[in-house]
Amino acid sequence: MNLFTEMRGLVIDALTAMQAEGVLPEGLDFKNVAVEPPRDALHGDMATNAAMVLAKPAKMKPRDIADVLAGKLAEDTRVEIAEVAGPGFLNMRLSAALWQGVVKAALEAGNDFGRSDMGTGKKVNVEYVSANPTGPLHVGHTRGAVFGDALASLLDFVGYDVTREYYINDGGAQVDVLARSVYLRYLEAHGQDVAFEDGTYPGDYLIPVGEALKDKVGEAYVGQDESVWLVDVREFSTAAMMDLIREDLKALGVEMDLFFSEKSLYGTGRIESALESLQSKGLIYEGVLEPPKGKKPEDWEPREQTLFRSTDHGDDVDRPVKKSDGSWTYFAPDIAYHYDKVSRGFDELIDVFGADHGGYVKRMKAAVSALSDGQVPLDIKLTQLVKLYKNGEPFKMSKRAGTFVTLRDVVDQVGSDVTRFVMLTRKNDAPLDFDFDKVLEQSKDNPVFYVQYAHARVCSVIRKAEEAGIAAADEVLARADIAQLDHDAEITVARKLAEWPRLVEIAGRTNEPHRVAFYLYELASELHGLWNKGNEDTSLRFIQDNVATSQAKIALARSVAVVISAGLGILGVTPAQEMR
């Protein structure tokens, strides 16, 4: 039930009738006609831009269109007032029955209230985290993991067929460094003194990996040349790190559908196949790039290389895919990986990268555009840095990882639910401050607490109603006489509930799950505001002497809990039944 879609349909019907009557010319395109909440709530419940967007193509004054349209809309029983403002904006005040009906719809649909078929079953691949398998996930990965997972859930909620994917970067030199670091821990497990030189990984998390390697091979690799053990230790170490990463993700409530290995692209012809696809389109050539301005990227060489003509697909410069010595650049396997995604039949691709990958956006979009002939859109979302604080001061925790604060450190401090919600209280491309004291604070300033408290309050109302012998199951509340919800404060809550279906579609269309967190805070604020008004006006309290009246008011509260539960479900957060 999307009231905004319903009322837009009413506006389109009225415009069509105006065409039939000769007020508007035939052939007008209504696609840009919108019905939205007004910028100022004092102006009404909904507003339409119809007169403004149709004036030019209709060769009419906006006000002339709006005046006739207002009269048409006012004939509908759902519209109490339709009035023109300014040069042709049209504001509507809707009947209380329309808002009251939202309560019934929410109770009948439960957690599916607001669920949409907007995605029409299109296959979308969301790739996120994709950290190098060289250690535990750090706090930066945490933000990307939460964002990607919430986005995947949001897209599922609005009708997409979603695949959650992790790209294992196990094909580069960093896994050789991992293997050498584990080998040092292996020697240490045999009682030897070792030194971790610059470029190795000194974190304590590799101690049990070295011991496990000792248990597996005994002394077989002690004193042996690297050529003897490097390949085996690399595979052993990578598997151990991926087990650790999977455990980290599990602690955060993240489960992937697929883990894709970069290593599987090498020596299998898959990189060559992807580049052959580009070559068949005239997009691969031999050439010398101009030296870039400013800092030179590591893959630039002042000699002839194999280049991808990425400028044909929106990039700033063409990009090397093979070095002059015949080895692949870092970009080549990434092209092959995305070629694999396109070949798997995805309709849309989304990559979630850290902020340090900003320079990769244009080249990757160019590659996907070229590989799919412009048929598969790629959206790349960058997640900005997270700064940790405690009592307002920068906070450092354990150095188990050697150089950074881990995901598990954060989750162990505040829990998965708090971690996930807080990570979504800012847009993904905005920096985030994470204060361990503030995120556990029980106040309105803490959005996690405020939303959870609203849900817990409703649960408390349900418990008290049942103790008083008032039936409060959803199927009973859905049949309550909701026409009794006629106070402005109650209608205000219902109005906010009505925004939910529209909100999730907008969030899904823009790939912005933070909108859900923002909305839940606003909805919680409306519930708390109604609760506080009940302290002064007893007629607004949820439990009254009259059973029927109680059930109507409890129905409103319960519908708020339904939406909060659905929204928290998208964010991957468990709704609180009570606050402790």
TrEMBL record:
One Gene Ontology biological process: arginyl-tRNA aminoacylation
InterPro entries attached to this UniProt entry: aa-tRNA-synth_I_CS, Arg-tRNA-ligase, Arg-tRNA-synth_N, Arg-tRNA-synth_N_sf, ArgRS_core, DALR_anticod-bd, Rossmann-like_a/b/a_fold, tRNAsynth_Ia_anticodon-bd
Keyword check for Aminoacyl-tRNA synthetase: yes
Keywords: Aminoacyl-tRNA synthetase, ATP-binding, Cytoplasm, Ligase, Nucleotide-binding, Protein biosynthesis
Catalytically driven reaction(s): tRNA(Arg) + L-arginine + ATP = L-arginyl-tRNA(Arg) + AMP + diphosphate
SMART domains attached to this UniProt entry: Arg_tRNA_synt_N, DALR_1
Protein name: Arginine--tRNA ligase
Naturally occurring in which organism (per UniProt): Shimia isoporae
Record gene name: argS
